[in-house]
Amino acid sequence: MLKPLLIIALAIPTIANADVFKCDINGKTVYQQAPCANGKTVDIQETSASSAIQRQIDAQQTRNNRAELHDMANEIERRNEAAARAQLQIIAAQNRAEYRQQIRQGYADQYQRRADELRHDAMRSVGGAYGRAWRNSLADDYEKMARQQR
């Protein structure tokens, strides 16, 4: 639709960009491109077909620009929302990893405490030689589990 309007606008000579001054010289009305010598100037409204076409073209261009800006704003908002969702997912994953690490550390601490208790009991000779060997063996197992949790 814009092509026919553009062709018509180019085919008709336009004076839309030229300043026209209506002057009253010796009682006669004169139109000229320079301001009037006596300082009396009257604005002239453009009524030519080319200026009407130009206004239509400008209006259509303005509508197109507004639509394009609206689309760009929507795209930016969509991308910002996607980035925010991705950031939240990253934070949630980090929190889950930290929580799992805290749980594992808690188990490791429990296993180490139990191993220390068994070694302490073994050193006190509770249960004889067999009891010491058995407690040392259990302590080794608990220490191994503690290392696996870390």
Outline the structure in words.
With 150 residues, the chain is mainly α. It has one domain (2-149). It contains three helices and two strands; from the N terminus they run H-E-E-H-H. It has helices at residues 2-11, 49-123, 128-149, and strands at residues 21-25, 28-32. Helix 1 packs across helix 2 (49-123) and helix 2 (49-123) runs antiparallel to helix 3. The chain is rod-shaped and about 135 Å long. The model is unreliable at 9-17 (pLDDT under 50).
Mean pLDDT level: 80
Determine the N-to-C terminus distance: 72 Å
Report strand order across the widest sheet: 1-2
Got a strand count?
2
Radius of gyration: 45 Å
- Biggest sheet architecture: 2 strands, antiparallel
* Beta fraction: 5-15%
